[in-house]
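Q: Predict the assembly, please.
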Amino acid sequence: MNKKKNDGSGRTGWNRFIYNNNTVGYVFLAPFVIGFLCFTIIPMISSLYYSCTDYNMIDKETWIGIKNYINLFKDERFINSIKVTLEYVFFSVPLKLAFALFIAFLLTRPSKAVSFYRSLYYLPSLIGGSVAVALVWKELFARKGLINVNLGKLGIDAVNWFGNMSTAKWPIILMTVWQFGSSMLIFAAGLKEIPSSYYEAAKIDGANGWQSFWKITMPCLSPIILFNLIMQLISSFMVFTQAFVITGGGPNDATMYYALYVYKQGINNRNMGYASAMSWVMLVIMSVITLIVFKTSNHWVFNESES
Amino acid sequence: MKGRKVVSTVIYHIFIAALGLIMVYPVLWMVSGSLKNNAEILSGSLSLIPPAWRWENFAQGWRGFGHVTFTTYFKNSILITTFATLGTVISSSLIAYALSRVKFAGRKLWFTIMIGTMLLPGQVVMIPQYLIYNRIHWVGTPLPLIVPHFFGAPFFIYMMMQFMTSIPRELDEAAIIDGCSKYSVFSRVIFPLLKPSLISTIIIQFYWKWDDYMGPMLYLGKPTSYTVSIAVKLFADATSKTDYGPMFAMSTLSMIPVFTIFLVFNRYLVDGISTSGLKG
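A: Predicted assembly structure:
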């Protein structure tokens, strides 16, 4: 290209290029595109390869085909980890959402104290994921911990929470439900946006509070319930720190959740091929569950544009 | 009628406040435990007032482990959290702007990919990412805990996009008529108006990162690069019997940065979450 041309039309050509919507779009999107390739796609594809190998991160990997996947389905500890994870999700997510909605609903009252209360109820979510709180929980539910001592005062026998396969999950589920703050905030934002005219109209028609909750609040809130449900499902499947700090997966694998088992196999045992296969099986399970929730949501999520 | 209303208001406040107290009790118990000794903590007393204020727990806890004090741990945590939060806020707002305000070819596809990544649980990519970081020799450094945050976080991108739907498009158009380019619309119009959403992002990302245990445990090798969350856990791992007082003292201190951020920005938190775009 010669210089003269550049000074004239080249410059406007450059301007046209740089201010073009496609250029602007990809300039702003660039971080995501790069991050998606480097931190999601490349790792996932390469782990698909590793899942068909025997790899300990020191020696070179050896190709073993689908043997890892076959072993997975024979591995009772893996099957158990999926089972206890599903059980944990099944109890913790609905309880957490119900509680979040209940508190968000209570806090819609016009009162000066509401924002103070909201902060109060948000506090557990703010710090609940920390190791510090997990350690507190461990002591609260210890054999001679605060909970047992005070149950004793009420005449109830002490429960060996973390020593018993059937009780070990409950303190962890309780801890998850306790951190309902972010779901509550999202519900609160949603409740604020329901026009008060709906309620007034219902009142004129003679509806009581209970009726207007089920006929107005719930349908209007259903898209937000779906959003919270999906987000909480995903974060519940990732349960790790609490179980790692409090029970370490015990007793007898009763709280050996999926993420803990992957960690054990991959990082502790350096069984990276096997752990990669586990990641892919989990990806398939998660996708199926998310898809089911989205499919069924057509039946219960109220769509304003349709009516 | 009026009397009934007063009674119901009183019952309402008593109920909410009592429930709130139960909610924060474990935290208060930990704070009061930071001033008690082992026997007092394990006595099972519900009282939150320490019998004797044992401030020495803080000095003892701060000493840390094997010549590494909490000064180091705090410095590491602050560094990692600050950079990661900064990265998230900047990159996520850029990406959210592209996806919600610029009409470019492939926008729908990238939006779908972004939602797909949001729905991808972190533990599924834990091992694959570990292998990649291992290959490029990042394991043992804080890089895996910081660098990925400069490439956008789908959850926050989505949150900001929701918020942007509440900013009238007429503002963009007016700015363009006044001679702004699509670039300066972002820097002069959208970014300043996004403030509540940016602040929500700062709060949430800050405490996620500060509380994060799994990441630092996976990637930080040397005790001198440990974060506060790793260090607090070390109290419980001690081979001799656990010193609960110092452990709770350091646990309490570990929460102060999160509290501070929350108290300073609290009033923006609810404003920054908009659900208007979630509807049908």
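The longest strand of chain A covers residues 53-54. Residues 1-8 of chain A have pLDDT under 50 and may be disordered.
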